[in-house]
Amino acid sequence: DAKTTQPNSMESNEEEPVHLPCNHSTISGTDYIHWYRQLPSQGPEYVIHGLTSNVNNRMASLAIAEDRKSSTLILHRATLRDAAVYYCVYAASNTGKLIFGQGTTLQVKP
Amino acid sequence: DTAVSQTPKYLVTQMGNDKSIKCEQNLGHDTMYWYKQDSKKFLKIMFSYNNKELIINETVPNRFSPKSPDKAHLNLHINSLELGDSAVYFCASSLDRLNTGELFFGEGSRLTVL
Prior knowledge:
The structure holds two protein chains of two kinds. Chain A is mainly beta. Chain A has strands at about 10-15, 20-25, 30-40, 45-50, 55, 60-65, 70-75, 85-90, 100, 105-110.
């Protein structure tokens, strides 16, 4: 399996934008990139996904590099409730498996 | 109404015992999964079923046996429990097997083997 690589942890101040990076240089051209987040004692929660173009939804934006070797999850204004582990995930198109990265623990300071 | 529900939420048992975790989804999805999350928070897929058919079976000891009586239910039975089986087990579902959409996770079942 290919893999995704993320920083172990990041810090942000409340109300400021957060850019969470992910490297996925070994995924194939048809593998979707997903982001999930996990709050303490809860199951992972879907955030956003995309293939080639940048994507926006009410929770976040996903910027995918043109060569698809990396992507960035953007939280436009971090709140204390956004403190969580954020997982960069790819969906292997040949098997349907979601392969999770090791996750980035985001701390949001008031 | 919980979309993906798992029972039990907590399970503490002795080595060598057999235990089961049950999962149900009310989303009308075709595909269901079991994921294992270890103490380092790493999430790894174990099994996937699509319309009651096993489609993903990762390298998991054969002490683990999933069963899907219908497409809304996916249970996980574990025989001869070992210390290393201690983890949080998550059930999930998706509309189809292609994973181009969203995966819905349950709240997890924390298994502790003593």
